[in-house]
Amino acid sequence: MSLINEILSYNKDFVETKQYQEFLTTKFPDKRMVVVTCMDTRLVELLPKAMNLHNGDAKIIKNAGAIVSHPFGSLMRSIIVAVYQLDADEVFVIGHHDCGMTGLNSEVVIANAKARGISDDVIETLGHSGIDLKRWLTGFNHVRDGIEKSVNIIRNHPLLPKNLPVHGLIIDPETGRLDLVDAAYPPAPELL
């Protein structure tokens, strides 16, 4: 069975048997928080469990490396909407150890794109259009660097209130342990 057929078949049963009822909530985060995290598959269930988050508790935004790469990109727009339209009061940027964005080599990504059919003409046209693929497809040397940069962009965004707490953490993708990188306010000493 193809993946789409498997998904649609499961979904039909899911809806018909009303399994969705346990997930009913509102669009407003109960814990009034936004989590910016990585799209890593190991974090899908681990991160919410490690943070004691349940369906409806938080707005969770995922991308490669939990990187805020542009102050006016779609990720920042999502944070701004969460704060001003959906009542979020704190932001948590959570990267993880063993992240695929650590040491990401743009040359390898571009070579893989070409191997899957993207032509040299497309790559060159993008370059002539002012898109620096080598810079855009670069990660970070250490996950901590990415977290600190993202926290800084959010904290200093001209459209966000200066008193918005923004925290940076790193999660272990095996154990779920959270290590504090940057706190907006001091945590309890016994938690450090």
Automatic annotation (TrEMBL):
Cofactor annotation comment: Binds 1 zinc ion per subunit.
Keyword Metal-binding: yes
Signal sequence extent: none
An example molecular function term from Gene Ontology annotations: carbonate dehydratase activity
Keyword Transmembrane tagged: no
Family annotation (InterPro entries): Carbonic_anhydrase, Carbonic_anhydrase_sf
Uppermost EC category: lyase
Keywords (A to Z) from UniProt: Metal-binding, Zinc
Annotated binding of Zn(2+), by residue: 38, 40, 96, 99
Reaction(s) this enzyme catalyzes, per UniProt: hydrogencarbonate + H(+) = CO2 + H2O
Cross-referenced CDD domains: beta_CA_cladeD
EC assignment: 4.2.1.1
Cofactor: Zn(2+)
Pfam families membership: Pro_CA (PF00484)
Family: Belongs to the beta-class carbonic anhydrase family.
Protein name: carbonic anhydrase
